[in-house]
Amino acid sequence: MKNTLLLLLLLTSLFANKSNYSIIVKKPFNSALFDITQDYDRTLSAVGFSKDYKNNSKTAQSYTDPFEYLASVSNKFGSQMHIMKVDKTAKVILSTVSSLPKFNEAIAVVKTPTNGYFIGGYTLDGSLLVVQLDANANLLFSKTFGTKNYDRMNNLILMSDGGVLAVGSSFTSRSSRDDMFNSGLGNNDIFITRFTKDGQKLWSKKYGTMYDDRGIDAVEARDGSIIVVSTTSYEKNRDVSIMRLTENGNRVWLKHYQEKANNDNTVVPKKIIRLKDNNFVLALTQYNHMQKEHIRLIKFDLYQNILIDKEIFTTYPSEINDIKEYSNGKFIAVGYVKDVYNTDGLAMILDSSFVLLTQEHYGQENYDVFNAVTIMHNSLAAVAGVHTDNSSQETNMWITKLNRDATMSQVSTSVASFYEKLCEIFKDEIKAKKIAIKKDLSINIIDPLLYFDVGAYNLTQKQKDFLTLFSSKLMPFIYANKEHIRTLEINGHTSSEWGKSDFTDTYLNNEKLSLNRSYETMSHLFREQKKPIRVWLSKVLKGSGYSSSKSIAHSNIESKKKSRRVTFKVILK
After folding, report:
1. Which of 253, 287, 288, 399 is most buried (CB neighbours < 10 A)?
2. What is the value of pTM for the model shown?
3. Helix pair angle (531-540, 461-480), 10° resolution
4. Domain ranges of the chain
């Protein structure tokens, strides 16, 4: 399989070479990330688990109840919820584990209106867990809920009222005193609980058959009803069910996809999302007669009508763990692809009809999986998953960013680091007092020999020679880092005088003059570049005229000569 991942554990220099945005966080023993979201400050937060161990001095004890035993060991060793925050430069700015008394794993994260988090998961002794954190990951409250038996959460969904919906499964209780359960429910049943934005439980309900039922995922419809996806297992079969609930958990309809007897084409649901057209997409894993997995996508509406049902065949067995819709109707899906010896993270781009446009595989010669994806404000996709080193058997937490074609994104830079590099590139010009560079990435020409004469806009030979040298340093640098550049501005300026004209004519004449100075400078720089740079510049170059609005003054006295100039400014994404 394609092996394209560069594992960059330490990004020492952004500009020494192009760095892929890929963060591997290693902890002792196994660790993993299962969900990811973008914060309101444009950072990324991901949740999963890392391992922690505690000493326990209690003497050995015999247990006859397996659930009691699980409760005892959950206080000795196991996983702890781990939340990690990273910035656009691939720097880990927060990495913390929960301080909850029982070991647990986090499987989902959603944002709160205050930039905090709802995190869903489960404890290792079989309880369900909802935690709310503030923007700095400080614990606001934790809710442990479920039955007296073994429960498992599969997802936590943000609702339109700011609350959350927990979806999972629960082992059946046989207690006649537990009025939550109806007679006839089987081994495992679908378990759904709804909470308010303040963490108050609104309702908990179970659904299922006499067989083994598991809640997989859910999504809220536009009208407030809830679409739930689940499985029912019996004998050698595994069926898929989709049901619609009211906002209070009452069932409206149930659609049961039952396999025929002796059918080897097992189908397993993985994810459901609501589309911008208010229909739904269900991602499934379809197993063929060789028990090799491939991808199946179903689009349906609120009234059970199937709009698209498409299988996606790939060279190697593949599975989708998460899927999101872009604003243009295309999709990004992530999961894994594997052969006999290797499993890689899989990223796919599909059109609105589920036609595969492109796919990329990421990983080394070991076990690598993408578990979740979120589309960021700039249309990049942030992915969370698991990476395993070639020389190790332990999984590690993994965050990466992908472009809209599923290729790996470059590491973003900060204004401060860009400023430092510009100062390094132009250190001779700065020392010779030909230019001055500000921390907002504006570049000002300060050599008196490079100012314009009164009313002039055509470049002198001295100006042309300087601009040629200047662009020979600036252009290769910004082109090499074009992924981070939004705009390159070339701004023309004038002094405030214009003969004996009135204010209006003076302003308009100076505006035209400043535009001409900008244009002549831009034209000279543009024509001297090689074609690839010219093509790129045509998308980011911006010329402006400021007339005399930004004239240079000292002690409130205008310096007319210094005001007749052009300035440059680099604007980052």
Report:
1. 399
2. 0.71
3. 90
4. 148-313, 415-572
